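Our consortium's second objective concerns turning raw sequence data into structural hypotheses that experimental partners can test. To show how far this objective has progressed, the report includes one record in full. It was chosen at random from the queue rather than selected for favorable results. The single chain below, 85 residues long, was entered without modification.
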Amino acid sequence: MMGFGFGDGISSLLWSFAMLFSMLLPVLIIVGVVYLGLSLFERRKKVSVGEYDAPAPLLVLKKRYASGEISKEDFSSMKEDLLRG
């Protein structure tokens, strides 16, 4: 028996949600995969460039100079080498 308006009531509404979900699910999966890929690419790029480890050698050098392990000339020479590249 047909209800008022379009379709046959609740079953038509359920089919509408099912169709909407089945259309959105692949889009959400694709967006998720692209986001995951980009975030992994950015992480690899930062690690390969060495942004996280850049200040560490200079800090070690300063600690060695402060403790008297190396002379001022050695410190200056090593610091220049580190800052050049």
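The partners drew two points from this record. Residues 45 and 51 are 9 Å apart (CA to CA). Residues 53-85 form one domain. Both points have been shared with the crystallography group to help prioritize constructs.
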